[in-house]
Design goal:
Elements: E1 2-5, H1 11-24, E2 30-34, E3 39-42, H2 48-51, H3 54-59, E4 63-66, E5 74-76, E6 80-88, H4 100-109, E7 115-116, E8 122-124, E9 127-130, E10 132-136, E11 140-148, H5 153-159, H6 181-185, H7 191-206, E12 212-213, H8 216-230
Parallel strand pairs: 1-2, 1-12, 3-4
Antiparallel strand pairs: 2-6, 3-5, 6-11, 7-8, 8-9, 10-11
Helix pairs in contact: 1-8, 4-7
Domain BPL/LPL catalytic: 25-210
InterPro entries: aa-tRNA-synth_II/BPL/LPL, BPL_LPL_catalytic, LipoylTrfase_LipoateP_Ligase
Pathway: Protein modification; protein lipoylation via exogenous pathway; protein N(6)-(lipoyl)lysine from lipoate: step 2/2
Length: 231
């Protein structure tokens, strides 16, 4: 396993980075982490206006980006950690792979009694703390998710108030009661500190090198994808 950390807080860049790693990386598995600036990330098969209060987002400078995978709409900010497993397809379908297990193990090692729900979401203390989604190509698979650590839950609520009457046949998000990991642990640590503890555990879990920045030689390629497809 190769552990990578994105250099960017741009949601367009990080969506493009996931796509690049899915389609262009050398053989082998990658676990990517990144933190986006305030933004709303919409599922591949959703109608933006039905899921998002675009007026509120425009007024508050919150970017709206459509991602590669399906699933529901999510809010990102500096209190939210994003993780993405990019793996060779193999013979086991992505929905049957236990990608959430190492994340749950990392959370439990840090005092959060997390479990995996029926929709592959992560739960703790009776609340959802992580939503997940997936995408499969001919040779590779992507499984990614969020971790609500210190997210602004009021802003999350305001951004995700779309006009439900516009949904039509598009995929609808499934609302769930959510909470922050920091509210469960009661600690004052920053999201960056918490992320460091998670990645230290995962480096030992996979017996791999510590997390490293995304290689500089691919950054310009990813920027081009971001501008052409996600900007």
């Amino acid at each position: 396993m190769l552990l990578l950390r994105s250099i960017s807080d741009s949601p367009a860049f990080n969506c493009a980075l996931e796509e690049y790693l899915l389609t262009e990386r050398p053989a082998g598995d990658v676990l990517l982490f990144y933190i986006n600036r305030p933004s709303v990330i919409v599922g591949r098969n959703q109608r933006i206006e039905a899921e998002v209060d675009t007026g509120y987002c425009c007024e508050h400078g919150i970017e709206v980006v459509r991602r590669l995978s399906g699933g529901g709409t999510v809010f990102h900010d500096y209190g939210n950690i994003n993780y993405a497993f990019i793996a060779d397809k193999g013979s086991v379908p992505v929905l049957d792979r236990d990608f959430g297990v190492p994340i749950v193990a990392a959370l439990r090692a840090n005092g959060i009694e997390a479990t995996i729900g029926a929709r592959k979401e992560l739960l703790a203390a009776g609340y959802k703390i992580s939503g997940t989604a997936s995408h499969v190509t001919r040779t590779s698979q992507l499984f990614h998710g969020t971790l609500l650590h210190r997210t602004d839950l009021e802003r999350l609520d305001y951004t995700l108030r779309g006009d439900r009457s516009l949904r039509g046949k598009s995929v609808a998000s499934v609302p769930s009661p959510v909470t922050n990991i920091a509210s469960i642990t009661g600690t004052e640590e920053t999201t960056e500190t918490f992320l460091s503890r998670l990645t230290d555990f995962l480096s030992a879990y996979y017996d791999c090198d510590p997390i490293r920045p995304v290689p500089s030689q691919i950054v310009e390629k990813v920027r081009r994808i971001a501008q052409e497809k996600y900007g």
